[in-house]
Each structure stands twice: as C-alpha cells, then as structure tokens.
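Exercise 7b. Backbone tokens:
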C-alpha cells in the first residue's frame, strides 16, 4: 500500500535518486516544473543524484544539459550504468585485471579509471567481458564479447533495455545486443549495472557519500522515476522507497494495475510534490478507499473516483485496486473499467 508522510518528501528523505529521461528532461527539453522543484528540494536539504541506464553519455555532458535548465549540478552527481558496471568489475577483480569491452568511450574511461586493463582481443585472456552500447557498435565487437564469454570471461552488462528511443523511432537497445551474446553462448550475464537491478542505487549511495563521509541510510533515500519496470522495480529489489511521477512512461492505469513488485511507495503528478507531505490512503470498506477527502469506489466491474483531476483520488484508487488484487484470487485487474484521470495542474 502507498505510504503517507507528516512532512514534505524533501524533508523526509535526505537523498533523491533521480531518473533523468521522463523525470527531469524529455530528450533535449526540460520537463515542466522539474528544475524549480529540484532547486526547492535542495534548499530544503535534499541531496540529488541523477541515475541513468544510458551507458554512452559522459557525466559532464549530462551535467551541462542539466545546468542549461538552471540547475547546479556537478558531473560526479550523474551516475551512469557505465560507472556502475566498471565499479562492479573492480569489486570482483584486482587492479590490472584484463577486460574486453564493447560500448562507448565513456565505458572504457570508467574501466580504466578503476585500474582495469582494457584489451582488444580475446587472445589477451580477459577475465571479464563488459558489454555496453553506442550507435556505431559493430558485429565484431559483439562477437568478441561472445568469444570471451565462451572462453570463461565473466559477462557484465551496462543494462538490459531491449529498446532505446531515437529521433526516427524505437531502435534496438543494449539489451538486444546482450541477447545476441546470450543466444550465441547459451549463458545469461553474470550481472547488470542498470535498473531494474538495484546496483545503481547502491553505488549512488556510496558515491554520494564521498571519501570518509557516512552514507545516507537506505530508509532516507528515495528513488524517483517515471517507469515502473525500471525505476520502481529497482527500488523494490533494493529495499528503497520510491516515487513515480506521471511526466513520462507510467500512466494512472498502469499504476492502478501494477503487480506487487512494480508498485511505488508514493505517486505524484510531477516533482512539485517533493515539497508536499504525502497523505495516507485509508480503507473505508472492501469496495472503497479514501485519501485526503478524495475517494475511489469499486462497483462490480467499474472503478469510479470522486474527482479525476485529483491526485489523491488516484492514490485512493491504487490502494483499492492493489488490495483487491492481493486478497481476492478471482479478481482480474485487467477486466476493471478504470477512470480517465486528468491530472495536469
């Protein structure tokens, strides 16, 4: 069930683990209200770490884009899947270990920055094969990863996203190239750095602390994203509270029908809700839930709400749908007629 907080989220949590695309920007454009909301949250004492499955963009490039929105961002606040992948390999193998890679310059720099030796051929005996993404990737690079895995190299991947949005449409992502190696070798990767695995959030906590500083306690960290199947699932896998915003992929119907492993801790229209306390949804009866004066009622196969423009009505509806899904084995969430929410404000 959704949680409530007596204080604003920006005061309840000390570290925000922010997704980028769909939360802070869409492509080159900022998401409405995101930058102002982040600045306000920082003024309230919340630290920002920006987390992305993108393995090819340099930290400084992402930071410069965020700065163009009026945010104060240092490159070290941007946590990419290449950074996490390199740190994972370095955790498992000593400095100087040989690795072979496919991907962008950013991945190579991170591997070398961790003291690992990047080699070009499987005949050099790499102990690890690290697979990332870049638009110009070649068949030979993917084949070399497969050859290395077949010879016993441990397979690490930056992420398993099957698709990536591009200017002309949806294109194969890193996960599609990973699947080609799996098809060739018959073996699944040893580890993935990207969401929905929680390693990115775990490493972000470490990196946010800096040298000699104490990490923010996990219960004081909030994962924020627009996708249930990456941002929220990573939070759930790692034991982090999460906030889903409706500025990207997730829709009200997706959230209301979400299975347990994809359910967020909080639901918000956008990042302005970081400055708000979260009301706690309340069970009224088997067929009704309420939240801050708004209500959701299930009547047969129809779910109705008191006000489809009220985010609290969505919170009540989520609690009602989730409870019925979990307690009634005959309940089919996909068969319920859901309200059309209009949550712009």
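Sequence design result:
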């Amino acid at each position: 069930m959704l949680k409530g907080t007596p204080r604003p989220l920006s005061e309840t949590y000390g570290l925000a683990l922010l997704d980028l695309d769909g939360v802070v920007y869409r492509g080159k454009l900022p998401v409405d209200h995101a930058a102002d909301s982040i600045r306000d949250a920082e003024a309230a004492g919340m630290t920002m770490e920006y987390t992305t499955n993108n393995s090819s963009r340099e930290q400084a490039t992402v930071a410069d884009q965020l700065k163009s929105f009026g945010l104060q961002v240092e490159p070290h606040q941007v946590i990419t899947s290449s950074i996490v992948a390199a740190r994972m390999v370095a955790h498992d193998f000593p400095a100087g270990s040989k690795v072979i890679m496919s991907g962008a310059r950013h991945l190579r720099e991170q591997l070398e920055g961790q003291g690992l030796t990047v080699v070009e051929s499987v005949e050099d005996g790499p102990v690890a094969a690290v697979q990332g993404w870049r638009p110009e990737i070649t068949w030979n690079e993917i084949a070399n990863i497969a050859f290395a895995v077949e010879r016993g190299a441990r397979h690490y991947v930056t992420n398993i996203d099957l698709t990536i949005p591009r200017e002309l449409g949806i294109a194969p992502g890193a996960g599609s190239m990973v699947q080609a190696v799996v098809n060739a070798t018959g073996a699944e990767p040893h580890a993935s750095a990207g969401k929905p695995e929680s390693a990115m959030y775990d490493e972000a906590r470490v990196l946010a602390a800096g040298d000699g500083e104490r990490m923010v306690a996990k219960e004081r960290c909030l994962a924020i994203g627009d996708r249930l199947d990456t941002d929220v699932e990573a939070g759930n896998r790692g034991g982090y509270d999460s906030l889903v915003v409706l500025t990207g992929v997730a829709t009200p119907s997706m959230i209301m029908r979400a299975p347990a492993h994809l359910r967020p801790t909080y639901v918000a229209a956008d990042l302005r809700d970081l400055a708000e306390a979260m009301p706690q949804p309340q069970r009224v009866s088997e067929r009704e839930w309420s939240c801050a004066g708004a209500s959701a009622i299930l009547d047969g196969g129809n779910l109705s709400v008191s006000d489809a423009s009220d985010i609290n009505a969505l919170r009540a509806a989520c609690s009602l749908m989730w409870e019925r899904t979990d307690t009634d084995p005959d309940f089919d969430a996909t068969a319920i007629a859901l309200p059309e929410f209009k949550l712009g404000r």
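Instructor comment: The longest helix spans residues 311-327. The mean pLDDT is 95.
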